[in-house]
Amino acid sequence: MTDELYSVDQVAQQLGLHVRTVRNYVRDGRLKAVRIGKQYRIARSDLAQLTGGAVPTAPAGDTGRVRRVEVSSVVQIDAISADDMQRVATLVGAAVRGRGTSDQALRIQTIYDEERASMKVIVIGDLADTAEVMRLIDAIVGHHDR
């Protein structure tokens, strides 16, 4: 058998779900599994079929845990007009759309407080992608007092 097998706990951790949810998927037939003793084992290919995509392979000797590093950043830009805010939001959104060097999607939200002329850009993603977004924001907005 060449297909890697995962426990219910490992699948739950990979998908960010509760163990009970994964067990219910198995019992409902939404996720194929093999019962070995008192435990279910899920084949990598069956997990990929459920998720609709590839499942990352665990490194040799790994306990089934997948290490993820995610950055949540908030960039505040003061004294920005509504037109400039729209330009920044459009350029950042266009630059990162469909981008992501990892299996994690890069997520960006913008908020504008017209009364205070203040914009917040919320970035959630891996380290490299987030760093690129920060460089992009700096290039667009820049520090005029340098």
Descriptive overview:
The chain is an alpha+beta fold. It has 2 domains: 5-51; 71-141, Alpha-Beta Plaits (2-Layer Sandwich). Helices cover 38% and strands 23% of the residues. It has helices at residues 8-15, 19-28, 44-51, 82-96, 127-141, and strands at 5-7, 34-36, 39-43, 71-77, 107-113, 118-125. Helix 1 (8-15) packs across helix 2. It is elongated, with a radius of gyration of 21 Å. The N and C termini lie far apart (62 Å). The mean pLDDT is 82.
Going across the biggest sheet, name each strand in turn: 1-3-2
Give the CATH class of the largest domain: Alpha Beta
- CA-CA gap between termini: 62 Å
Mean pLDDT: 82
How many beta-strand elements? Answer: 6
| Second rung of CATH, namely the architecture of the largest domain | 2-Layer Sandwich
Shape descriptor: elongated
